[in-house]
């Protein structure tokens, strides 16, 4: 019997990218997997794909993580099916068309979209699941997806995304401390996908952007469907990390009970060290890391 066999795992944003890979790996490891995503058609396609992989159940629920009631109703359905949830991956996230734009020129609807998905999506997940996970009295873990960009140091070309991920890191640290006070049976972890730019379709998330967050049609246009498209268009020579690598790393960190789920990266480590040395020295930040 493996570590995940017979456990129940809920993954938001589970129908694509890193979330889909987490669902795949958890199903293969014998867990009961619950795919939570805003795209019902994609959920069903992934559910059918995964249903033959392992010994556990594979369920799927359409959910809008920006809406508290949607997350709570989804949690109700899941707890009606299972006595508890052992692993909650608050993984849903979006990218925005903000690269190289001035922070003072970004529309408020972009800020609302980014924060409602990337930050409030995590908050809603914690509020809907953690009390019942604690009440069940079993060991478990909440894993929130952050990013080195914002979560550890802020890049100047993505102000909204970086700000949301800084918030996720802070929320996760507070959650960890409060769960320790509750006895520590439920742990918290914060995942920094990498070590390089992750090859997902997050830049195409405008396709599912609700009208409530759209002021003009330009906000729904998709400039790049994959990171490969971005690199090809810009001529940048960046190394990519595949979602499968992120999933494998994340699940290894969960089995080890790690809070800081940061993949090894010499360049990243130097940047982190430089940032905190600059803070301790009370120096002004550089123009970019």
Could you state the order of secondary-structure elements as H and E? EHEHEHEHHEHHEEHEHEH
> What is the alpha-carbon Rg in Å?
19 Å
Compute the number of strand runs: 9
Main sheet: strands, sense, barrel = 7 strands, parallel
CATH-assigned homologous superfamily: NAD(P)-binding Rossmann-like Domain
Number of helices: 10
Percent of residues in helices:
40-55%
- CATH fold label: Rossmann fold
Strand content: 5-15%
CATH first level: which class? Alpha Beta
In spatial order, strands of the major sheet run 3-2-1-4-5-6-9
Task: Tell me the CATH architecture.
Answer: 3-Layer(aba) Sandwich
Number of separate domains: 1
Unreliable stretches, pLDDT < 50, 5 or more residues? none
Provide an overview of this structure:
- With 289 residues, the chain is of the alpha/beta class.
- The protein has a single domain (8-280), classed as NAD(P)-binding Rossmann-like Domain (Rossmann fold).
- 45% of the residues lie in helices and 13% in strands.
- It is built from ten helices and nine strands.
- The strands form two sheets. The chain has a seven-stranded parallel β-sheet with strand order 3-2-1-4-5-6-9, with helices on both faces. Strands 7-8 form a two-stranded parallel ribbon.
- Helix 1 (17-28) links the parallel strand 1 and strand 2 (32-37).
- It is globular.
- The chain starts with 7 loop residues before the first strand and ends in a 9-residue tail after the last helix.
- The model has no long low-confidence stretch (mean pLDDT 92).
């Amino acid at each position: 019997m493996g570590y995940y066999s017979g456990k129940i795992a809920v993954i938001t944003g589970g129908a694509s990218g890193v979330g889909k890979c987490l669902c795949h790996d958890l199903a293969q490891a014998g867990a009961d997997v619950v795919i939570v995503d805003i795209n019902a058609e994609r959920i069903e396609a992934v559910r059918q794909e995964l249903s033959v992989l392992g010994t556990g159940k594979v369920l799927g629920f359409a959910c809008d993580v920006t809406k508290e009631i949607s997350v709570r109703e989804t949690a109700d359905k899941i707890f009606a099916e299972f006595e508890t949830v052992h692993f909650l991956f608050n993984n849903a996230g979006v990218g925005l068309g903000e690269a190289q734009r001035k922070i003072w020129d970004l529309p408020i609807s972009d800020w609302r979209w980014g924060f409602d998905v990337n930050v409030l999506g995590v908050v809603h997940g914690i509020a809907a699941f953690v009390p019942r996970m604690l009440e069940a009295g079993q060991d478990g873990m909440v894993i929130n997806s952050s990013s080195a960009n914002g979560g550890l140091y802020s890049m100047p070309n993505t102000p909204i995304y970086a700000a949301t991920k800084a918030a996720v890191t802070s929320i996760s640290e507070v959650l960890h401390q409060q769960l320790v006070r509750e006895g520590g049976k439920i742990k918290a972890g914060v995942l920094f996908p990498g070590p390089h730019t992750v090859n997902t379709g997050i830049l195409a998330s405008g396709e599912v952007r609700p009208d409530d967050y759209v002021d003009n049609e330009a906000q729904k246009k998709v400039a790049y469907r994959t990171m490969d498209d971005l690199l090809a268009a810009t001529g940048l020579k960046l190394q990519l990390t595949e979602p499968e690598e992120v999933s494998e790393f994340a699940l290894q960190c969960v089995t080890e009970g790690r809070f800081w789920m940061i993949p090894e990266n010499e360049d990243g480590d130097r940047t982190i060290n430089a940032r905190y040395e600059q803070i301790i020295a009370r120096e002004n930040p550089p123009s970019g890391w």
